[in-house]
Amino acid sequence: MWAHWLPSSVADTVLAAGYYTAEVVPGLRVISLNTDFCDTANIFAVLNQTDHGSQWAWLNETLATAQARGEKVIVIAHIPPGLIDLVPVPNWVNFCVETYNTLMDEYAGVIAIQLFGHLHYDTFRVIRDAAGRPVSTAHVVPALTPRAASSTGLAPPTPGKNPAVRLYHYDTDTFQILDYDQYWADLVAGNEQGELKWELLYSAKDYYGLPDLAPSTFATLAERLRADAETWAAFSDVWFVRRPYDACDAACRLHAACAAAWTDPDAFFECTRHL
């Protein structure tokens, strides 16, 4: 079903293991990863933590080639690295987290942006090197599809969310990400009126007072989520796309801030020890 959007050259890796790379325009490449190989809900990935489908070896080779060609890369995948905001459960097995972070550090100059979904709500993950320095940012984008109120059984029920679409601004010469606009539609109003009306929810730099979208800037933003009530109020207003999460207490806030700041489980749990 994707054949008319992708070149025939992706067929071998897609059919073998569900990952691929393709040129978007000259100088810009997309890499799509198969995160089922990392999912902690996949018992086979948990019990056998290795390079399934040779995906990480392929990613290393593909990023090295992009670097040699002077290309920038958009990394896309479904499940983001790191832990779930609401409960201290990792999304990925440790082998994947360690390997991915190492590659994102090694090729930080090649990566234009990382885009993930899965969680449906609006957040981010700071990717760090072995010394804890921020080297890249994984943007976890809220979904177009709404989600009803739900509970994992390990946390208070979430409030559901409204539909959302994100538009990124970038430099057309360097492919540097400059800003993004987050749009939303009020689903309750849409059901009442018989149509959805899309509106700008926020622009990242203006909304959070960011000088840029650099990894160090997002690391500072994650710390502000912990320490600054005004920043937390702004984040929580858009977290579930204008569906207030009143059940999120101080521990919940700390988990969300630490999940944004650290993808390594040990570092996350160390972060959560400091209210």
In short:
Helices cover 35% and strands 21% of the residues.
Q: What integer is the average pLDDT?
A: 94
Structural class: alpha/beta
Q: Tell me about the biggest sheet?
A: 6 strands, mixed
Trace the largest sheet across and list its strands.
1-2-3-4-6-5
Give the low-confidence spans.
Answer: none
Oligomeric state:
single chain
Bulk shape: globular
Instruction: Give the helices and strands as they follow along the chain.
Output: HEEHHEHEEEEEHEHHHHH
Could you list some keywords that capture this structure?
275 residues; 3-stranded antiparallel β-sheet; 9 strands; 21% strand; 35% helix; 6-stranded mixed β-sheet; alpha/beta
Secondary structure topology:
Blueprint: H1 11-17, E1 20-25, E2 28-32, H2 43-47, H3 55-69, E3 72-76, H4 94-106, E4 111-116, E5 123-128, E6 134-140, E7 164-170, E8 177-185, H5 187-193, E9 198-203, H6 204-208, H7 215-227, H8 229-239, H9 250-261, H10 265-271
Parallel strand pairs: 2-3, 3-4, 4-6
Antiparallel strand pairs: 1-2, 5-6, 7-8, 8-9
